[in-house]
Amino acid sequence: MKTRTVKVDYLARVEGEGGLYIKIQDGRVADVKLKIFEPPRFFEAFLRGRDFREAPDITARICGICPVAYQMSAVHAMEYALGVKVEGQLRALRRLLYCGEWIESHTLHVYMLHAPDFLGYADAIQMAKDHPEAVQRGLQLKKAGNEIVNLLGGREIHPINVRVGGFYKAPSKRDFDPLAERLRWARDAALETVRWVSTFPFPDFQPEYLFVALRHPNEYPFNEGRIVSNQSLDIEVERYEQHFTEEHVEHSNALHSVLKGAGPYFVGPLARYNLNFGRLPAFIRQTAHEAGLGPACRNPFQSIIVRSLEILYACEEALRIIAEYEEPEKPAIDMEVRAGEGCACTEAPRGALYHRYRIDEQGTILDARIVPPTSQNQKAIEQDLWQYVPQHIDLSNEELQWQCEQAVRNYDPCISCATHYLKLTVDRV
Amino acid sequence: MVGESGLGMCAHSSLAGGVLVIGIGNEYARDDAAGLLVARKLKAQAGGAVAVLEHSGEGASLLEAWKGVSSVVVIDAVRSGAAPGQGLRFDATAAALPAESFRGSTHAFGLCEAVELARCLNQLPRTLIVYGIEGRTFASGVGVSPEVNEAIRSVADAVLEEVAGLGV
User: Fold this and answer.
1) Residue A177's CB: how many other CB atoms inside 10 A?
2) Taking a C-beta distance cutoff of 8 angstroms, is the pair B66, B125 a contact?
3) What is the ipTM of this complex?
4) What pLDDT shows up at residue A64?
């Protein structure tokens, strides 16, 4: 019996701490484990007994990369519980804030974490020695996202201007002038990014996926929509827990999420793209076509192109919102506190983020449930490796490890969120 | 808040030639808050005389934060194996930071990566001093351990002295 092990004790270039273990026995994959060992964060328990107004700011601390997503799912769930709905310019401002976070988070992943894999560099620093202009472009593009979050959220990391019902302060139309100028540059840089990443070498790997994302009647989704799949699922968000379940697995501190009766599923940019291609503006669909993508894309390695298309979309959408912006009369809507239960799902950069809260008549949180995108993708990541490794079994351990890590990074996993994490081991017996 | 863009990264364009102090951390990860707490102490002690920024440690925005600033002092929690509360001083201008010690942050692209990318892109401040405070625990929760609490005062004093030496 011959065993090979590919083992990454500490996975680099993913947010948080985790590892990967792959065991190959007699030329066949015998085991794949994505290990998440960052301790669970107990945020759900931490929320019990706190005021409903605190949920957006507390949950924002779960992740330094996607705090806006946590804030958005939290405020929408609370508004659902209180029976109010934020519309008009306040709703548009929330989409704008989400544009900022997508630009920040996606650009960081495309340029600093994932591009080095395709170009054969150990990290962005090595890549910068040969591609300084590309790295500079990435840094400036990310800055455009930072500036949206800074202006609208009050600061770049852990924004403080978001509240249940709207914002603490709404910007004036004039506040957006310098931002619009930078976003026009950013849109060109995003287009350049799509063209750049589309020239990368992509392995031929196209598994059959069960994609899950929000779908809105006419928007590319951020905050609102039905939960749909590329199979038969099409449900209201409040039915999420009837269809999805989380299970504990021994090798991970993060619960694994499955679609009942169907198993693993895939959330994030690739799922959104496949389920919402028609909602992208015509020029972005054309840009996708020029980058070699059709309306459907099942190659997870090409998620770097899709992520870049989403940066382009976020720049375009931000410019549209700013152009149509009129300062609202009040920065937040009025609401009466009442006992209730509410849930919401919004599209974090890495995919669907579900929150549910139960509050009493004083607005105290009695119960909270948070299902982050990375915990939903864990099984899909492992499933990819079960399929990818046999196709590349003849590679040296070093090359196989490289490609397996790259395959994990296709998902831009955020371990910090999931435990609410990565190290790699390939074992060849 | 809106309009106070100074709270973010745009505040230091006027600092060209000046000194910027950056406290890094996460106040919900126990001793990881050390850098933030030093920053707050310095703000209270030095008033407006020293430009102080609280930061999450996300690398790409750190590069932006110190762009054009000639002298930067960074404070962050470390896990180097030293005794909890021990203060460490690194001259990042002279040599790379020991990355394995700065794993308190879970960022994939954090302080050490920002320093090396800045070095590669010629965006390193003329002087970049990093103070580390050895943490005992980085578990979820609020409140630093007694040793770290003790170290915050001495490191804040050392940073003030450093800043004075840099010409403020």
Assistant:
1) 10
2) yes
3) 0.81
4) 73
